[in-house]
UniProtKB/TrEMBL annotation:
Keyword Transport: no
NCBIfam families: catechol_dmpE
GO molecular function: 2-oxopent-4-enoate hydratase activity
Name this polypeptide is given: 2-oxopent-4-enoate/cis-2-oxohex-4-enoate hydratase
Length: 261
């Protein structure tokens, strides 16, 4: 794709986000779109957000489970950028009716970094040494593509389907919990709807952050001290709507909850 078309697609996705009006899949319209094209489109979308006053505060990793990778026919995760406008605090209502169009919630473990990580060559031990704390998290993903009819290029172009997120208020030293075996229980409106474990995300959430540091390092992009890194869902995506209340509890880490309005 040429630069003009990449910019046009990024602008289209940004407008779709603002107006809450989904677009046709890019992969239906541009059969030759590559993953590299898609990342360049996502950077244009991000550029528009920054021009509007948003600030980058971290990154998210998606497509970490084998089930989702198989569904999209890919063998690798993807990533997107988090901005300050996406972040909500524990106990704060999340206005999905005003901000999102096809929201789905997923329970995750968030990493807060205290040191920069710059790949390639980053190991899981490096990630743990650079992590200040981990927290329970709800990421509420959204797609600017009609009916979530996405292939890998569609979600990559759409900033990895980033929506909003909320962090729990209890921070835990990642060296004091087994992130591969820790269990997760997700409740919606008082009923348990899913369970999972850290191993659901590439064997461990630490492996996800390691992948991201090394992948971005190839392009000279570091993970920075102070950034929030969402490491990928440990449970299936759950559609949500205004009025729903969800909570997630992670063994050894704590809980997070969110009410949608």
């Amino acid at each position: 794709m040429d630069k003009q078309l990449i910019q046009q697609c990024g602008d289209e996705l940004y407008t779709a986000m603002l107006e809450r009006t989904p677009v046709r899949p890019l992969t239906e319209r541009f059969s030759d779109i590559t993953i590299e094209d898609a990342y360049n489109i996502s950077l244009r979308m991000l550029e528009r957000r920054i021009e509007a006053g948003e600030k980058i505060i971290g990154k998210k990793i998606g497509l970490t489970s084998k089930a989702v990778q198989n569904m999209l026919g890919v063998g690798q995760p993807d990533f997107g950028y988090l901005t300050d406008k996406m972040a909500f605090s524990q106990g704060e209502e999340m206005p999905i009716s005003d901000r999102l169009m096809q929201p789905k919630a997923e329970g995750e473990i968030a990493f807060i970094l205290k040191k920069d990580l710059m790949g390639p060559g980053i190991t899981a031990a490096d990630v743990l040494a650079a992590t200040d704390c981990v927290l329970p998290c709800f990421e509420v993903v959204d797609s600017r593509v009609e009916n979530w009819q996405i292939k890998i290029q569609d979600t990559v172009a759409d900033n990895a389907s980033c929506g909003l997120f909320v962090l729990g208020d209890r921070a835990v030293d990642p060296r004091k919990v087994d992130l591969a075996t820790c269990g997760m229980v997700v409740e919606k409106n008082g009923s348990i709807i899913s369970t999972g474990a850290g191993a659901a995300a590439l064997g461990s959430p630490v492996n996800c952050v390691t992948w991201l540091a090394n992948t971005l390092g190839e392009f000279g992009i570091p993970l920075k001290a102070g950034e929030v890194i969402l490491s990928g869902s440990l449970v299936p995506l759950e559609p949500v709507q205004a009025g729903d209340f969800m909570s997630v509890n992670i063994g050894g880490i704590g809980s997070a909850s969110v009410r949608f309005v």
